[in-house]
Amino acid sequence: MVAVHSTSPIHLKPVNAQRNHFYIGNATQTFCPQQPDVICPIPGNTTVLQTTARGYCNMLSQQSLKADTKLRAQDVEVPGGQHVYVAASGALAYTVPHSNIVPKGAHSRSFALDRTSGTNSSFTYSGTGKASGWLACPVAAEVYQVFADVELEDQNVPLKNASACIALDALTTNYTLPGAAAWQYT
Length: 186
Hints:
By secondary structure, the protein is mainly beta. It has 1 helix and 14 strands. The chain has one helix at residues 62-67; strands spanning 2-4, 15-18, 21-24, 30-31, 50-51, 57-59, 82-86, 92-94, 111-117, 120-125, 134-140, 143-148, 166-173, 184-185. The strands form 3 sheets. Strands 1, 2, 3, 9, 10, 11, 12 and 13 form an 8-stranded antiparallel β-sheet that branches. It has a 4-stranded antiparallel β-sheet with strand order 5-6-7-8, with no helix packed on it. The longest helix has 6 residues, at 62-67. The chain is globular, with a radius of gyration of 16 Å.
C-alpha cells in the first residue's frame, strides 16, 4: 500500500505495519520464529492487507484463507492471523498475533478495496459514518502515522496537532508472490 497526495512529503511512500499500527516512513516490522519446522516467508518485510466480502480487513494465516473462500488475499502465517481495525482514537491498527480481539470502541468492519485500474485498488474505510478517507499525522521527521479521517482530536494524534495531518488516498496493488508476506507483524 502506498500513500497518495501529490505535492506532499508522503506522496508515493509505502505504508508499513509496525508496533501494531501503520506508518509512512518507518520500515515494516515482522517476526518469524527460528524453529526447524518453520519456513519463514521471503522477503518477510512487506505489509500486505486483504479484505473480506463482509468488509473486514485482516492479515490472515494461509490456513484461515483456505477455510474462507471469500478472502481475496493472504498475509501472515501465524495461526489465527492478525486483524485490522480503526481504534477509537482513529488510528489504523492491527491486533497482536493469534488474536482477533479488538479494543473497546474500535471499528473492525467497513474496509474495502475498490479496483481503480488493472491491478491497482483504493483501500477505503467508512466504518463510523464520519470517515471520509485517511490522514497521515506527523510522528517525527519524515515519519507519519495513518489515521482514519474521523474528525480527529489533538489529544489522539502523536504530536497533539490534528491540523498538521495530511489527507491521503491509500493505493494498493495485488500481492503476487507465492505464500504469505510475513510470519507475523509486530
